[in-house]
Amino acid sequence: MSTVYTLEQPTKRKVILETTMGPIDIELWPKEAPKAIRNFVQLCLKGYYDRTIFHRVIKSFLVQGGDPTDSGTGGESTYGGRGVCWCDWLDRKNTIFGKVTGDSIFNLLRLGDVETDKDDRPLDPPKLLSVEILCWGKCG
């Protein structure tokens, strides 16, 4: 397990992903991944992720969404490129910038249980309806 995940102190900077499987609460880690968080929050404020699908699901490993093309090929970044990766085996394609908290983990697990095709694409893709930013800037 990443030491970042185990050592990061709780933060009041949070978002709620409203999905067709229920809400998913995410605690953000701006200290450890400031550029990734800034990019994510700015795109959330623009409604960039609203009404997108979860386009890739690998049971017990990954639920991926937020691509407005619904293809998984990527989309806009406020920095124009990919972020720094902390997991060598992910080949510099992903950044860990928070964690799912509370009972909303069960909604995430439900997302991970959907039926997929041979390419890990859900047959009936769950949707990310909207993102609510609970606290940003000075949060006490």
TrEMBL record:
**What is this enzyme's catalytic activity, as reactions?**
[protein]-peptidylproline (omega=180) = [protein]-peptidylproline (omega=0)
* EC number(s) stated in the UniProt entry for this protein: 5.2.1.8
Gene Ontology annotations for the cellular component aspect, listed alphabetically: catalytic step 2 spliceosome
Q: Record's Pfam families?
A: Pro_isomerase (PF00160)
**Superkingdom of origin:** Eukaryota
Its chief place of residence is nucleus
- A GO molecular-function annotation: peptidyl-prolyl cis-trans isomerase activity
Q: Which Gene3D superfamilies match?
A: Cyclophilin-like
Please list the residue ranges annotated as the PPIase cyclophilin-type domain: 18-122
Subcellular location as annotated: Nucleus
List, in alphabetical order, the GO biological process terms annotated in this UniProt record: protein folding
Keywords for this protein:
Chaperone, Isomerase, Nucleus, Rotamase
Annotated function: PPIases accelerate the folding of proteins. It catalyzes the cis-trans isomerization of proline imidic peptide bonds in oligopeptides.
Q: Which family does it belong to?
A: Belongs to the cyclophilin-type PPIase family.
Name of the molecule in the record: Peptidyl-prolyl cis-trans isomerase
The species this protein was found in: Dioscorea zingiberensis
